[in-house]
Amino acid sequence: MPLLIFPWRKTNRSTMGNCHCLSSSAKNVKANPIDTTFKLPSPLPAWPSGGGFANGIINLGGLQVCQISSFNKVWASHEGGPDNLGATFFEPSPLPQGFYMLGCYCQPNNTSLFGWALAAKAEAEDQSPALQRPVDYTLVWSSESVKMKKDGDGYLWLPTAPEGYAALGHVVTSSPEKPSLDKIRCVRSDLTDQCEANSWIWGPPGASVDGFNVYSLTPIDRGILATGVPVGTFLARNGKASPKDSNIACLKNTNTQSNTYMPNKSQIDALLQAYAPFIYFHPDEVYLPSSVSWFFTNGALLYEKDHIQNPVSIKPTGSNLPQGGSNDGAYWLDLPVEQGAKDRVKKGDLPDAESNLHIKPMLGSTFTDIAIWIFYPFNGPARAKVQFFNISLGKIGEHVGDWEHVTLRISNFTGQLWSVYFSQHSKGVWVDASGLEFQDGNKPVTYASLHGHAFYPKAGLVLQGSGGIGIRNDTAKSKMVMDTGLRPSIMAAEYLGDAVIEPPWLNYCRKWGPKISYQISDEIKKVEKLLPGPLKSAFDKFIRSIPDEVLGEEGPTGPKLKNNWNGDEAV
């Protein structure tokens, strides 16, 4: 009998359980990645004690929930969806005593099995119990009439919730008979929140946008103060609808003591020891990161609009920087005036570079986000690919001061790393742990692009553009590497109160670099001289379509002014 791992119990082993798979009735079906269960390279450590972090169960106020990551397979298609490899539908199992399923789990077949679904238990039964059986089911879709490779037939059912309750997921069966009403539980509406379709999971072969499709779900409101909790279930629907038009709800954390499930300082240290990423810089990179204090003590200057001829040296902690206010153009930072010092500061100081950490609750305090901010004194010029031509863009892309970040998303149920966000200019991408490269155990590998410093999960070229024309984002391993766990500094963790004192520079709200005075049109003309006639106008159109942050016309604001400081990451 295969080993079952119980995710709600504290353990030093990975919490990914084994999957009980049904035999496939489809003929000539090749093994897919989902047939392998993903596990982190190393077992989870024993986290330091204290509070409710990584204890397996979280009290949402009226409901206790646990994160189940072991499954029984119910039904699978072997076509449609990402890479046309199909998708597999599971029930979370086994459940701890007294806990109920809220919905089934579904995942594309093109990745290793790696996911979870919440199970719930009512804290106390009263006249309005937190959990109720559905009163009926509606058949949303079946595979009976769909010609494709599949494991028999699958049926997707939507629970009909009693009045005052909401369904949080679907039930999947391999039989046309309605599921038992005891199979699943609906949740009292005041304990739920709105959610929306997130990423596409699957659609039958040839399915259109307005046909039948399956999506993952996420709370509509996401941020430090948001209370929506994802359940790990999916949305199945027929017909075109708004991404926010969901008949499935998520949970709501109504517990006023929810921060007790966030990691304390000793647990944060342990999380960094386990998961702090390595950042690899391109072999040709000359503009490396530094600490903020190194930038200040090596000649960075504070300029004031009304006294531009008298810039001021900046104290190591930024204590003489203007605090608060808004990005009104009244102040900005710049490199030293003397050319030798300016050229030296531009290059940064990698051995001195620090990881500036923002620790924050996310998804109703069921996850911890560790945003790791890296500062660069200078962002180098961009390079473009114009079909067969690789061209330096002169001053385009240059600016003083550059803030980039990578974010670890960690389960507060277990302390397991679930995904990593890679910032890429004004947006970025989330990558599940199953899609990451690791080094020295469970530490993700990150690649910083040449000159632009955008972060990517894999080495190589990513072209920011279309039609063979775009900004080059080149990444590669080199001997220049930063272990973000060596010099970490917690710059903010609001939920810890006075235990973390924010550095003065964090509350400087103006630009970290001056507005560049060059004319973009002149730079474009220099590049166009190198291009054949037909490509000139296409290149000009592309350059004028990219955001100012990439063009580098002025320095950026600091981390605290970014939308993701209080909200979720932009994708």
Q: Helix- and strand-based class?
A: mainly beta
Cα distance spanning the termini: 42 Å
Report the major sheet.
Answer: 6 strands, mixed
Q: What does the average pLDDT come to?
A: 90
Tell me the domain tally: 2
Task: Write up this protein.
With 571 residues, the protein is mainly beta. It has two domains: 58-256, no CATH class; 265-565, no CATH class. It is built from six helices and 37 strands. A six-stranded mixed sheet has the order 30-29-28-25-24-37, with no helix packed on it. Strands 20, 31, 32, 33 and 36 form a five-stranded mixed sheet that branches. A four-stranded antiparallel sheet has the order 1-2-7-5, with no helix packed on it. It is globular.
SSE order and pairing:
Elements (H helix, E strand, L loop, with lengths): L56 E3 L3 E6 L2 E6 L10 E6 L7 E2 L3 E4 L8 E6 L8 E2 L3 E7 L12 E6 L4 E2 L4 E3 L12 E3 L3 E2 L1 E8 L10 E7 L8 E2 L4 E4 L12 E3 L12 H11 L2 E4 L10 H6 L3 E4 L7 E2 L17 E4 L4 H8 L8 E8 L4 E13 L3 E4 L2 E4 L6 E13 L5 E8 L2 E6 L5 E2 L3 E6 L6 E2 L3 E7 L2 E7 L5 E3 L4 E5 L27 H9 L4 H11 L4 H4 L20
Parallel strand pairs: 20-32, 24-37
Antiparallel strand pairs: 1-2, 2-7, 3-4, 4-6, 5-7, 8-13, 9-10, 10-12, 11-13, 14-19, 15-16, 16-18, 17-19, 20-36, 21-22, 21-23, 24-25, 25-28, 26-27, 26-35, 28-29, 29-30, 31-32, 32-33, 34-35
